[in-house]
């Protein structure tokens, strides 16, 4: 059986970028600059899933550049979107439902000009914190400046054909009777209560009425205004069933990932892009959604969000990038309790990358090294840093709350885990301290080592000691004749200090381990 060809750095990111390039060459388009896009919602608090869309697109950009092509990421904030429901915990008026998020007052502070501006800034701040480079575009400015007017015109001219196709692909009949465009009502300033009835082609105007509309589970009252909206001057918005296609052509987008929740919209947009706008739709990859630990979709409106800002109180930017780059398929339950595992997994990748851990399988080695490079945004460090097991740090931080940095550092030196402190170790202690303080009952699987009654002596090898020292479990030994002794009990009573001190003097030793009740 022939070996599978390794593409680029051996990751799914490289495979997707390669497929994109092959498709573009087949189409025959210019590839001097290849743009990838991520749509950023501005209707609620952005979460790790929102961030993931842009981070993964940035990974494709990096892979394209690694293949020798120029690329850029367009981060598109949909701040012209109408508010469909009020996210949990936000002080927003009921009358603002249906209005554009770019005209709703900021419910969180006075530093932004609107609700949409604040939500967009949170996500962009998250990208900045991770080192993601992007070109930012706002929906409000895109429509106001007329960047989509030609696409809007063409879509409205072919609205009957598009309505038929939407019914064919999704079963939705709505757009056989109305146009896929929402003018902003000139009377009540709402967006999603307007219904476009006719397109006056030679004047490029839409005739509409403002009527009661069902948004989510609520009926939003329209104002009964009837009027006309000029698509070249007045503000309005294409429905999602066709808007992606308009953006793709206007910005020359060649790649965009999408979540399974908008799969039907992407199908329609692909057709509109290909058949109506005559612009070959971008290369895609579908990703599964992040779920909370209860199995529910993480949602801005439900309020069960895990934000990157809060995550970075407990873990490094690399831990988020590892979460997002390790794989793209399959739904995953996500919670802050995943941070310790990701922090330690990054250390394992770093050991592989710098040859400290040997991997016999060549494909796995290439993939692991490639993943490490993408987690470091293809700019990996020159040398490995000091590794300290994150779970061990959490346990130490639970014990030492006063002068934490000093005491935890002292214990790590006593144990032989580190020789001296440095800024990286201090940062890890701060992360673990925050985690310990905020999540007192950390659910980390215990690993137990049992000693038989008949065993009077135990040979403790160097590797065994390293395992004990760096183990992040609550329980280290199960002594069948006495009791279970947890790591914090060992430290509290001085056992760990005594044994680890012996270890530092002699690597391999024979010890009588006799404990009495």
Describe this structure in words.
With 517 residues, the chain is α/β, with parallel strands linked by helices. Among the domains are: 58 residues, no CATH class; 133 residues, no CATH class. It has 18 helices and 20 strands. Strands 3-2-1-11 form a four-stranded parallel β-sheet. Strands 5-6-9 form a three-stranded antiparallel β-sheet, with no helix packed on it. Strand 1, helix 2 and strand 2 form a beta-alpha-beta unit. Helix 6 runs antiparallel to helix 8, helix 10 crosses helix 12 and helix 11 crosses helix 12. The termini are far apart.
Tell me the span between the first and last alpha carbons.
61 Å
> How many beta-strand segments?
20
Strands in their spatial order, largest beta sheet: 3-2-1-11
The percentage helix is 40-55%
Averaged pLDDT:
82
């Amino acid at each position: 059986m022939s070996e599978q060809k390794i593409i680029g750095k051996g990751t799914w990111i490289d495979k997707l970028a390669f497929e994109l390039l092959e498709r573009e060459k087949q189409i025959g388009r210019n590839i001097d600059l290849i743009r990838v896009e991520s749509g950023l919602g501005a209707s609620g608090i952005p979460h790790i899933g929102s961030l993931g869309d842009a981070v993964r697109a940035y990974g494709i950009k990096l892979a394209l550049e690694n293949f020798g092509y120029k690329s850029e990421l367009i981060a598109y904030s949909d701040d012209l979107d109408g508010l469909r429901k009020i996210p949990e915990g936000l002080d927003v008026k009921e009358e603002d439902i249906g209005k554009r998020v770019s005209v709703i007052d900021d419910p969180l502070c006075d530093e932004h000009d609107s609700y949409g501006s604040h939500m967009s800034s949170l996500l962009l701040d998250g990208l900045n914190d991770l080192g993601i480079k992007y070109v930012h575009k706002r929906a409000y400015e895109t429509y106001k400046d007329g960047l989509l007017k030609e696409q809007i015109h063409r879509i409205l001219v072919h609205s009957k054909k598009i309505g038929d196709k939407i019914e064919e692909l999704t079963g939705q009949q709505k757009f056989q009777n109305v146009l896929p465009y929402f003018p902003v009502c000139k009377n009540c300033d709402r967006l999603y209560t307007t219904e476009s009835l006719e397109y006056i082609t030679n004047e490029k105007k839409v005739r509409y009425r403002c009527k009661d509309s069902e948004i989510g589970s609520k009926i939003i009252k329209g104002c009964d205004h009837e009027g006309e909206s000029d698509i070249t001057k007045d503000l309005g918005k294409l429905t999602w069933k066709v808007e992606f296609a308009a953006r793709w052509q206007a910005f020359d987008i060649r790649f965009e990932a999408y979540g399974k929740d908008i799969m039907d919209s992407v199908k329609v947009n692909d057709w509109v892009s290909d058949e109506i706008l005559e612009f070959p739709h971008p290369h895609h990859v579908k990703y599964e959604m992040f779920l909370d630990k209860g199995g529910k979709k993480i949602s801005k409106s439900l309020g069960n969000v895990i934000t990157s800002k809060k995550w970075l109180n407990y873990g490094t930017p690399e831990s988020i990038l590892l979460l997002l780059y390790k794989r793209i398929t399959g739904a995953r339950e996500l919670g802050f309790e995943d941070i310790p595992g990701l922090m330690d997994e990054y250390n394992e990748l770093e050991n592989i990358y710098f040859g400290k851990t040997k991997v016999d399988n060549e494909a796995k080695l290439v993939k692991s090294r490639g993943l490490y490079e993408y987690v470091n945004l293809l700019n990996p460090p020159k040398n490995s840093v000091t590794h300290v097991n994150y779970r061990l740090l959490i346990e130490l931080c639970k014990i030492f709350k006063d002068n934490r940095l000093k005491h935890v550092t002292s214990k790590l030196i006593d144990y032989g885990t580190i020789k001296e402190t440095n800024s990286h170790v201090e940062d890890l202690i701060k992360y673990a301290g925050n985690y310990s303080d905020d999540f007192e009952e950390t659910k980390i699987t215990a690993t137990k080592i049992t000693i038989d009654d008949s065993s009077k002596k135990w040979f403790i090898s160097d590797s065994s000691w390293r395992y004990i020292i760096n183990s992040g479990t609550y329980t280290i030994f199960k002594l069948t004749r006495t009791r279970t002794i947890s790591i914090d009990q060992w430290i509290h009573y001085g056992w760990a200090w005594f044994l680890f001190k012996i270890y530092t003097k002699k690597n391999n030793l024979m010890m009588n381990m006799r404990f009495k009740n």
